[in-house]
Amino acid sequence: MPSAWGPPPGAPPQGWVFPPTGGYPIGAGPYGGQPWYPGPPAAGWYPPGLDPADRLVTPPGAGLSGWFDRCAGAVRRGWRLLLPILLLTQVLPAAVLSVLSLGLDPTAKWETTAAEESTSLPDTFFIDLATMFLVLIGGSLLIGLVQAVGWAAGTWVITRQAAGEPVSLGDALRYGLRRALGLWGWTLLIGVIIGVGVCFCVLPGIYLAFALSMAGPVYLFERQNPIGRSFRMFHDRLGLLLGRVALVAAAVIVGTLVASVLEGVGSAPFGVDPLATPGSAIGVVLVIAVSAVLALPAHLVQLVGLLVTYAEQRAQEGPVNAAGLAAELG
Question: Is the pTM of this model over 0.90?
Answer without folding.
Answer: no
